[in-house]
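Hi W.,

Here's what went into the run:
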Amino acid sequence: MVRILIPTALRQYVANSSPEVVIKAETVNEAISKLTRENQKLARHILDEQGKLRNFVNIFLNDEDIRALDGEDTKVSDSDTIRIVPAIAGGEVPSKALRRYFCKRA
Amino acid sequence: MQKGVARQIFAALPHLYQRDNNIEVTQKDLEKQVEISPREYRRYGRHLIIPEVGMEGQRKLKAARVLVIGTGGLGAPSSLYLAAAGVGTLGLIDFDVVDETNLHRQILYTEKDVGKSKVMTAKARLLEANPNIKINTYEERLTSENALEIFREYDIIVDGTDNFPTRYLTNDACVMLGKPNVYASIFRFEGQVTVFDANRGPCYRCLYPKPPPPGLVPSCAEGGVLGVLPGLIGLIQATETIKLILGKGDPLIGRLLVFDALGMKFEELRIRKNPKCPLCSPNPGITALIDYEQFCGIGEKDRLSREVASVTPKILKEEMSNGKKITLIDVREPHEYEIARIEGAKLLPLGELPERVNELDTADELVMYCHTGARSARATQFLRGLGFRKVRNLEGGIDAWSIEVDPSVPRY
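Here's what came out:
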């Protein structure tokens, strides 16, 4: 069983807003597929229309970026931890300029 | 800045400039270039007795020029400590004014500063903390037009911004000028910190070649942030900046530090240079600064927001008073609904809208609202796409409603 750590920004899209999910998988790809199948909302946020990982989402196996390993085909074993690391922007509340883009009155 | 002065300071910190690594700065050179007054000896006494700092380190700190981008949650604590530590020249860039909602974390500001310019207030506060330093203020937005010119005057850039366009702009300008970028970002209880220095490791684009389209990763405005978190993370940025200036210790280059305040855990992830990075690889595709708002999909969002049918709070109030039957839909999260709501509104969080759309009737006059109008604009657009014709967005959200129509609704 491999442990998948869910970042704070994406926890709201996982059942019970869980900080981690334990899944049985042989590869990173299998783990992410199972995770997103069980959590459809999360799928929309980390996978594109073709079901591929979006490029503002990085996956680490233990402390190593899977791009430096075998990508999504990287084998995982029982003691491993997969970490999802999305790009986050904050700072804090969006600057007024940015808010103006979304909303003329802010 | 005069050429001679720039050159003098430049030579004091050759370790920061790879191309000038052959310059050897002796203790005597530094002494000639940077004078420490008797009062400063006393002020920095506890630094001077650390072997890794000493007189040489304190002179380097005084010679250093650091630009802090954004004087908010991250920039407030980092600039305060950099000033106290004796960094000789600090640049502050921010075009915003102090807002009440800043005060739970932006410790440079007090209640009496609300409504005042952030950089001018910060400058006064930092000079109170240490009158021996120089502060340059830039009360303007960082843009592709001014970034290179401003960055050129500094040795290290501290990125404390709050949005993707400015992050990519900061990264790109730093890579083009060969400057280290002390990076951090935060969300709720979590922070990420690293030092991007393309001469010695990856840049931000190696890690994230492209930004998320607006709306896919929640922002702090929607998600909030624990007030102490930017303090912790901002001080890691200040620590890394000081280490870079001193040339001591292991800089956080090629390592992404992920901090979780709830679990009180620091995890270190290895990050590598992307050999095909569009910016910092030997054959980069990007050689000049671009339009970062367009790159981050913000121009597109702007266009969509403008196209979405909307109603102002005042007009909505009038319609309701005239007896028009309007169904108000609140697309915020349940905990926001707890804080404040418009009477009679139905809660339907944006994330649940696709699967609960059958709860809405296309025949009804719908008005969607959220905190400030961004999420409800997306909801309005989504419903229009499904064939809802009588749906409008409340401009400025519940915040504007509170200001313009009903002050009894708390603002947050």
